[in-house]
Amino acid sequence: MLLAFGLCVVGALAEKTLVQRAASFSKNVSDCPGYSLHAVEATGTGLTAQLSLAGPACNAFGTDYQNLTIQVTYETETRLRVRIADSEDSQYTIPESVVSRPAAPTTSFTNSSDLVFNFEPSPFAFWITRRSSPNSAPLFDTRLSALPETPIPPVITGDESTALDGFSLVFEDQYLQLTSSLPLDTNIYGLGEVIASSGFRRNLAVGGGSIQTLWTRDVGDPVDGNLYGSHPVYLEHRFNETTNEAQSHGVFLFSSSGGDIMLLTPPNAKQSLVQYRMIGGILDFYFFSGPSPVAVIEQYGALVGLPSWIPPWAFGFHLCRWGYTSVNDTMEQVQAMRAANIPLEVMWNDIDLYHAFRDFTSDPVSYPGEEVRAFIRDLAANNQHYIPILDAAVPHLTNASDVYAPYSKGRELDVFIKNPDNTEYIGQVWPGYTVFPDWFANATQEWWTEAMKNWSDGGVEFSGIWLDMNEASSFCQGSCGTGANLNDTSVPSVQIPGTPGNPVTDYPECYDSSVSGPSGNITINGTSTCTNSSSPSGLSVRGLGAGAQSGVDLNSPPYVIHNGFGDLSVHTLATNATHAGGIVDLDVHNMWGLMEEKATHLALQELQPGKRPVIIARSTFPSTGKWAGHWLGDNYSKWEYLYYNIQGILQFQIFNIPFVGADTCGFQGNTDEELCNRWMQLSAFAPFFRNHNQRGAISQEPYRWDNVAKASRTAISIRYSLLPYWMTLFANASMRGTPPVRALWYEFPTESELFAVDRQFLVGADVLVTPVLRPNVSSVEGIFPGRGQVTWRDFYTHEVVKASSNGTATLSAPLGHINVHIRGGAALLMHAQPAYTTTETRGGPFSLLVSLESHSNAFGTAYLDDGLSNPPAESRTVTFSSTANELKISSRGTFTVDQKLEELTILGVSKKPSKVSVGGKNLQKSSWEYGTDVQELAISGVSVDLNSAETVVSW
């Protein structure tokens, strides 16, 4: 939830100008001597060696380590690990208890891995090549001979600290640097979390570049700044136009440290560069060989943990609002949605639910426990669900008459983060002065689970949990409650939107009173006043960072990362806040959200045994997908953010956090009828589909406008019909890490015109979505991959797209219509009768949509299980394969499917059949019909048992 509403920041901030920052960086890393390699020893799985400083220490931003240890491990045939650490092991490393990784290999892949580690001993450098293509450019190359000889101009004008003037390996207690060359024409995706002005593909334009800062922060979706998550992983795609060969690989730095990752291409350069500048930790790199983009994402998921299993109900439509003032108000939304016949699966509550903004409570006046319980049970009786918010901090209390068990029990169990002097660290959030759970403390899991259980027992019988503000967020800087009047209920001094004196009064982005009237919103026929502007962007160039050892400066070290808030302790915990075992927050700040997500997931498993936990969280880190999904934060009700929605979803597929979506219609500011119409349609094809907006803004539930209601009914109906497809895609994600949503080029990696496309996307391999992302239009331009060799059919009409020679087509897109196309060769199992809830939908019969390619082939699979058990107790996989006027339906597994396949639609049947048979029995002509215009064979009135080993349909 957005915090920037007249915040009171306690303590003065140390302002650092561009000049000061540049002066800080001018310690001249070009003078750093690098390291020399010696004592190389081969192991069964790779090698180990020692590195010694190759000259006088430069101590650029800390103290140089004289001796390092390098370990190279060929972990699989597609994954290589290169770990460079100080020989004393004094730098912070991520423990297995936080992010578990696969066990060390017992088989040698040294000679079979497609990745090969190469090195030069002095000055030490390494490069990674492919065994399968040894003459190709290295995938990662730190050799000085591969890097420029002259300094590189600043990425940010006037900020000399973003210049690159040294490329040797630097390994200090407060600064680590490593640089690799990249081909000029390469394509990089990932690194985050970020809303990148350059789009899904990262900026490597000649003479330009970008900075990915790794420091999680609570901020309302700025452009080109660090956001809620930290993900130092990228997917790189290289394409050789001469040979028409394409290969992808991945690079992951396993580190929780703050840092900057610089991507840039110098003027007149022969290569691009990536430079890592970390303010702590070690250099622990993993390389993934791919060679397809999907394979890279799968290989990354196999390392950090595959995504959790998602129940079908989580794919329904979710509704929330910061500003539902009571349980009756919340109930009225459910009733209004039902009256408008807009399917509603999950109802949410924001912090309005709480008593005095306190976690694990419900307000005794506006949300009395028994009324909340009755409301939630009424939802459950109608196959609907309930999710409440859970914030990161709990109030600190000293008044003995103020009974609040989560704090008193937490203090008893010693589960809160401390100051360096071992007193409680006291920050400031919605309930006032607050303390923060320490996930490293022994009793925190027990305490957290008990608090959630008591909350549920008290009436808030949640189906899932929403974790907000878990960067962690604090309104003041430092332990501001130390020495303060802790019973002062006037803090925090934050003006909440919608309260007197702080109304949300901005007009919708495309409001034009001359067209729409003084209280109306622009319509599709109005005159657009949009500029497609977004929130203020640009990079701040202030911040702090350090290592964790004694003798280093935790609060103002020399190298300043590009944190958008400046000091690293702004809006979050101070960098010297202390966890169990003496761990300082500077080293683990980026993991706080992940650790809360893991604790919540484990709690839900205990409280709801055997069920699949549903958690949506804001701050994320590698392996979050194993525990939770993500929403894209406090976005804006602007058209540009409708577009940013897509790149955010694509980005989190790379991070193996596939269950992701944006606040539909926008969170901040006021939406309008047209924007909300288009956004509801787009989000119906996102993994996570929730409408949510801020307190005080105009209401944006989809029933508020007739045309939004109509568009929503249509889009949700399609979504629910495709539920078997979604469940199959997410089963593949949970079993293999396969991304459910894909950039177009993932499926067509040699079509360079697709590499920058991020205004369309694929759901799986077979469903192409082309949304309208601009106001006041009734058509949209789309590109259809395959260069004429792939057939794309309209999902609604089944007509074949007639694209131009360059693969593009202008598509009709009146308000209320989103273009969806099916790929030739696809076979999609669907629900024949989408209903009001996913439970009712899943109880009905199946249909099958087959889109034959020109050679009459099609293929698809469907994964089916009970949708509840975790992990699935039983499952069934049904395969659909078509060749030469025959469709085979094969089935294997132990799960029993009760519903029958009653409708089949086969597209691309070149002529009207003389007969149609199912399971060896000829059908009466009344059971099928043929449409010549779209070459459609529609079969109905059948009852195919999907448990049968094989059923043949022929025509």
- Biggest sheet, strands in spatial order? 26-25-24-23-19-18-17-28-27
**Number of helical segments?**
15
Low-confidence stretches: 3-20, 516-528, 531-548
Give the overall form.
Answer: globular
Highest CATH level, the class of the domain at 739-954: Mainly Beta
Q: What structural category characterises the helix and strand content?
A: alpha+beta
Strand content: 15-25%
CATH topology of the domain at 739-954: Immunoglobulin-like
> Count the strands?
46
Mean pLDDT: 92
Major sheet description: 9 strands, parallel
What is the CATH homology-level superfamily of the domain at 739-954? Answer: Golgi alpha-mannosidase II
Gap from first CA to last CA: 57 Å
- In the CATH hierarchy, the architecture of the domain at 739-954 is Sandwich
**CA gyration radius, whole angstroms:** 28 Å
Helix content: 10-25%
Characterise this structure.
GO terms for molecular function: alpha-glucosidase activity; carbohydrate binding. Helix content is 17%, strand content 24%. It is an alpha+beta fold. It has a domain at 739-954: Immunoglobulin-like. The strands form nine sheets. Strands 26-25-24-23-19-18-17-28-27 form a nine-stranded parallel β-sheet. An eight-stranded antiparallel β-sheet has the order 1-2-3-4-16-13-12-10, with helices on one face. It is globular, with a radius of gyration of 28 Å.
